[in-house]
Amino acid sequence: MRIAIASASGALAKATAVYALERTSADDVILVTRNPGALAEFARRGVTVRYGDYDEPESLPAAFEGATRLLLVSLHELGHRVTQHRNAVEAAAAAGVRHIVYTSYIMVDPACPSTVVPDHLRTHELLDASGLDVTYLRNGLYAETPVTQILPPAIARGTLVDNTDHAKGAFVHRDDCAAVAAAVLTSSGHEGRTYDVTGPELLSFADIAALAARVSGRPVGYVSVDDEVLDAQLREAGVPDDVRGMIVSFGVALRAGFGEPLTDTVRELTGRPARPITDLMERHRPLLANA
Ligand SMILES: NC(=O)c1ccc[n+]([C@@H]2O[C@H](COP(=O)([O-])OP(=O)(O)OC[C@H]3O[C@@H](n4cnc5c(N)ncnc54)[C@H](OP(=O)(O)O)[C@@H]3O)[C@@H](O)[C@H]2O)c1
């Protein structure tokens, strides 16, 4: 089994490559990226590093050649990423890949109002129709988002404001998602399976603010506002339409319970428990304390 990890200079994919190399030989790993120079350290360790861009389908046959299993990391650009994912799936099938491991999202459900979900649903459809074996990793809400993006400005203001109204989610370290992806890529029996990859506990943003206050020594309160009020505040702050829609719809989806799956997948597949969000806060203590 030779595995290809695509979008390999991204945070999730690169961490997956590091974990995969603890489990398999460098000869069995191909890293595909738009930026091979960023992965020179892997090349020095004997890993094959190749250029590949989903927006240049002609670059993909050579990129995937010889691989039998592929990690397809979902991309960022809403709408357009379905075309990018399709290009990758078609090229992988043509190159002889037999099994795709797709990093999906915990909220993926046709009833979920989050604006990031439809692209995942369409990607699931094209993967299901591809004739390839597929494993879905429904990754939970990254703990990195509150810790490194939401909390620093909230601490600086003294209040975290959103529209989630004490709804809860099982925030997971992206690195734990990577460890799970590596375990799936380097072992057998995962074809046709779907795994919900979550953190170890359900937390609201009020809980997260309280934990951050304890870790950083900086007081930070929590206020929930209506969707319309949050939308207006974000508009006032100059947040672009698509990002605003993503943030507001995330709160609506969390309130509807789409962040609530809580599983032991990390421990079951990696042998160690999922790490709590406070570990990440400790790691970023200077960012939080000096916000
Ligand atoms: N669960 C959550 O809470 C959550 C939160 C945020 C994002 N996500 C999803 O998780 C994914 C991975 O997260 P991450 O933190 O690892 O993101 P990241 O560090 O931004 O990595 C994304 C990677 O996408 C690749 N990419 C961009 N355009 C490409 C193209 N045209 N063709 C091929 N690859 C392309 C790039 O890899 P190369 O430069 O190596 O080509 C980039 O490094 C995101 O893309 C997003 O879909 C999930």
TrEMBL record:
NAD(P)-binding domain: residues covered: 8-187
Superkingdom of origin organism: Bacteria
Organism: Actinomadura fibrosa
InterPro entries listed in its UniProt record: NAD(P)-bd_dom (IPR016040), NAD(P)-bd_dom_sf (IPR036291), NmrA-type_oxidoreductase (IPR052718)
UniProt-listed Pfam families: NAD_binding_10 (PF13460)
High-level lineage: Bacteria, Bacillati, Actinomycetota, Actinomycetes, Streptosporangiales
Residue ranges of coiled coil: none
Listed name of the protein: NAD(P)H-binding protein
